[in-house]
Amino acid sequence: MRAYGGISVVNALPSWYGSSMAIDLKVDVSIEPGKYKGDSSLIKEIVRFINEKYGINFDVKINSEIPQKSGLKGSSAVSVALLAEVSKKYDIQIDIPKMSAILSIKAGVSFTGALDDAISSYFGGISYTYNKGFEVIGKANPPKDIAILVLPQGNRPNFNPWAFRNYSTLFREFFRISLNDPLKAMRLNGIAVGEILGYSMNIVDELLRKGALAAGISGNGPSYFAVTKEGDEGPVIEVLNTMGKVIVTRAVTLEG
User: Fold this and answer.
1) Per the database record, which ranges form the GHMP kinase N-terminal domain (predicted)?
2) Between residues 37 and 175, which one has the greater pLDDT?
3) What residue numbers does the annotated binding site cover?
4) Helices (H) then strands (E): counts for the chain
5) How confident is the model over 110-163, as pLDDT tens digits?
């Protein structure tokens, strides 16, 4: 099955309210009889859960366009794609995004479960969730005619996730804004996350001056992103190119 990466609209760590936008970086997952031979703690947890509950064992093959540990929702994409493949192949009824969130916490790859990431990765579009209660508040299509620019970077530095909780009121306000103006919320969130995590924000200032509608840090870092109107990417790409190779992609609309 296929799922998608994403960029943050509102980080869920501070207030448990989260929002994510699916982008066209794909993950394809297939399974075959056997035992899982890899070392991913998340996949091991999913395989263990399916084996214990349904008596099924399988190996997993992944083809991903999403750089690992980049804040671009790769773990959620792998998780929902794998659960969807198991559900389809063995005709098992699973609440795929919710189970992805639960198993992501058990595997230690997410502090909140990242239900917002799982929803957008699985369905496309923009998700709105309350992760503490595994509650889906809503889904929406992304704004039309936008381009997504990503500067992927790996090797996320260590940080204290609970430091975000000091900003719960601020990020709850970002979430409220996101319900009507996701790009404004994305811009505010991207800047705030970068400041809290101590990233250099000069690059973000320059991206916004060059016409980006939103820019900042996705997830908990370390990747930078920018959103522009289609056709206005050039000046923003030039800024990002000074730091590394840029991925130009698009938002993914809701499926069905």
Assistant:
1) 42-125
2) 175
3) 67-77
4) 8, 9
5) 889 999 999 999 999 999 999 999 999 999 999 999 999 999 875 555 667 777
Sequence ranges of the binding site for ATP: 67-77
Mention every residue, 6+ apart, whose C-beta is less than 8 A from residue 199. Answer: 217, 221, 222
CB atoms within 10 A of CB 80: 30
Distances (CA, A) of 22 to 215, 233, 242: 16, 19, 26
40: its two tokens: 């991913």
Residue-range domain boundaries for the chain: 2-139, 142-249
Locate 124 and state its tokens: 């496309």
* pTM: predicted TM-score of the whole model, two decimal places: 0.94
Alpha helices in the chain (DSSP H): 41-54, 74-90, 96-106, 115-123, 168-178, 182-197, 202-209, 233-241
Q: What is the dihedral of CA 198, 199, 202, 205, to 10 degrees?
A: -90
DSSP code at position 61:
E
Chain position carrying tokens 């991206």: 207
**CATH for 2-139 (3.30.1540.10, 3.30.470.30, 3.30.230.10, 3.30.572.10):** 3.30.230.10
